[in-house]
């Protein structure tokens, strides 16, 4: 019996010793491979015309972020307040900047917290602004054996990746580590 326990524990210890380096790197890779493109593509739909399009958001940007408010003003964004415009600009910038910071591992914990906040706001907007609560197939359910709902299932995976980065940091192959060594 002792031989079996030893055969299990020795390789397990070696793998466990690698975890501080591997987990953050894999979390950043997973984010880059699956979510960065999603967020950047979403941000691109919010850009207005010209080189400074981020500061003059598209009509779609307002409709995505403030669907009920846009409906109330008959999709005339000029009738919305400066607050709405600032939120749309901040959200668009966040969709570009935060994924980049996570990929290169710069200010990783702060960027991951920012992305968690972004995903929470995005989820609330989907649930209440876009009425996802009325669509069980989009909302999904945990423990239902169907792992592909857009809200509960996917966003739980997103959060696990982001929380890993908040807890573990960026890992050894990162801009954070380079700055720490300097």
UniProtKB/TrEMBL annotation:
Carries keyword Membrane? yes
Q: How does it sit in the membrane?
A: Multi-pass membrane protein
Localization terms from the record: Membrane
Task: Name the InterPro entries on file.
Answer: DoxX
What is the protein's species of origin? Aliiroseovarius salicola
Mark the transmembrane ranges.
20-40, 47-65, 85-103, 110-129, 156-175
The record's annotation in Pfam families points to: DoxX
Cite the entry's keywords alphabetically. Membrane, Transmembrane, Transmembrane helix
Q: Can you name this protein?
A: DoxX family membrane protein
């Amino acid at each position: 019996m002792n031989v079996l326990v030893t055969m299990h524990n020795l390789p397990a210890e070696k793998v466990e010793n690698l975890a501080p380096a591997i987990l953050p790197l894999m979390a950043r890779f997973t984010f880059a491979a699956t979510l960065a493109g999603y967020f950047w593509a979403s941000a691109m739909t919010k850009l207005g015309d010209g080189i400074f399009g981020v500061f003059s958001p598209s009509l779609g940007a307002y409709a995505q972020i403030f669907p009920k408010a846009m409906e109330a003003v008959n999709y005339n964004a000029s009738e919305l307040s400066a607050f709405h415009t600032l939120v749309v600009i901040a959200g668009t910038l966040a969709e570009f900047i935060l994924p980049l910071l996570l990929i290169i591992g710069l200010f990783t914990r702060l960027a991951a917290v920012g992305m968690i906040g972004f995903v929470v706001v995005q989820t609330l907007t989907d649930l209440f602004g876009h009425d996802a609560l009325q669509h069980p197939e989009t909302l999904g359910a945990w423990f239902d054996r169907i792992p592909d709902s857009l809200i509960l299932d996917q966003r739980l995976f997103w959060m696990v990746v982001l929380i890993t980065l908040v807890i573990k940091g960026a890992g050894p192959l990162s801009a954070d580590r380079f700055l720490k060594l300097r």
